[in-house]
Specification:
Number of strands of chain B: 0
Largest sheet of chain B: none
Low-confidence stretches of chain A: none
Order of helices and strands of chain A: HHHH
Low-confidence stretches of chain B: none
Mean pLDDT of chain A: 91
Oligomer: heterodimer
Radius of gyration of chain B: 21 Å
CATH topology of chain A: 3 helical TM bundles of succinate and fumarate reductases
Largest interface: A-B, 29 and 27 residues
Number of domains of chain B: 1
Number of domains of chain A: 1
CATH architecture of chain A: Up-down Bundle
Structural class of chain A: mainly alpha
Mean pLDDT of chain B: 91
Helix content of chain B: over 70%
């Protein structure tokens, strides 16, 4: 490899180097961790756990928006993760494609259902 | 460009499933593979999670169904099995969460020494197991 292999002289092969996936995985994870803490704090607030308290947590508009953002973040996080798993363990292109399509259908279906539950509250 | 393509590039393959038992993984390796296993587990159980969310939050009646499901079962599924699946979810979430924090910590502090990799992996295993046992106790008793 030439010694001037950097900057504009760098030999570029492949599409991208995974920085976007790496970063989005961290950002979405942080969002979900934040959501977890917000939810636990509200569950641990004084008062007996019952339907009114539980559904009341998700009744606030800000909590609906936060939950919605977390659902979308989860969708993307799981997509990146599952795609990595398929890429690592499944070699035949056809089977890999089928599994990736299945993952997308599964995730979009789940996200749609969760959002429906959230907004009919 | 042509120079890069011509070069024989090193090839790294995953270990084969049949080799798994012969490999003695260090704690960091165990944490790594369990991070994947817990992630795939939660991916597969995602509809179940939303079903729980749906029932618990939709109405007073569905909330009642949700709570009796854990006391007396739902349909042909006995309560103990439901709790077992939820326990698997609890483990999956806590493990994935703890192992994820380990990643974030390493990224933020650049703590990439061999000894930190080992100690943080052991800590991940211990913390997630203790939390799972605590919440599992609350679930079953």
């Amino acid at each position: 490899m030439a010694s001037d292999n950097f900057g504009s002289k760098r030999i570029v092969v492949g599409a991208h180097y995974g920085l976007r996936d790496w970063l989005s995985q961290r950002v979405t994870a942080s969002l979900m961790a934040l959501f977890t803490i917000v939810l636990i704090v509200q569950v641990l607030m004084p008062g007996e756990m019952n339907y009114d308290k539980w559904s009341g947590i998700f009744a606030h508009q800000w909590m609906k928006v936060l939950t919605f953002v977390v659902i979308v973040a989860l969708l993307y996080h799981v997509w990146v993760g599952m795609r990595d798993v398929w890429m690592d363990y499944v070699k035949p292109v056809g089977i890999k494609l089928v599994l990736q399509v299945f993952t997308i259908v599964w995730l979009v279906g789940c996200a749609g259902w969760a959002i429906q539950v959230l907004w009919r509250l | 460009m042509t120079e890069a393509i011509k070069q024989k590039r090193p090839e790294f393959r995953n270990i084969h499933v049949s080799q798994i038992v012969a490999y003695r993984l260090p704690p960091a390796g165990i944490v790594s593979i369990l991070h994947r296993v817990s992630g795939v587990l939660m991916f597969l159980l995602l509809p179940f999670v939303i079903w729980l969310f749906d029932n618990s939050v939709t109405s007073e009646i569905s909330y009642g169904m949700f709570t009796t499901a854990f006391a007396a079962g739902v349909g042909f599924i006995p309560a103990w099995f439901l709790k077992l699946v939820v326990l698997a979810l609890i483990w999956g979430y806590l493990f994935h969460f703890t192992a994820g924090l380990r990643h974030l910590w390493m990224d933020m502090t650049h703590a990439v020494t061999k000894s930190f990799g080992h100690s943080s992996a052991v800590a991940t295993l211990v913390i997630s197991t203790v939390l799972t046992l605590a919440l599992g106790y609350k679930l079953f008793f």
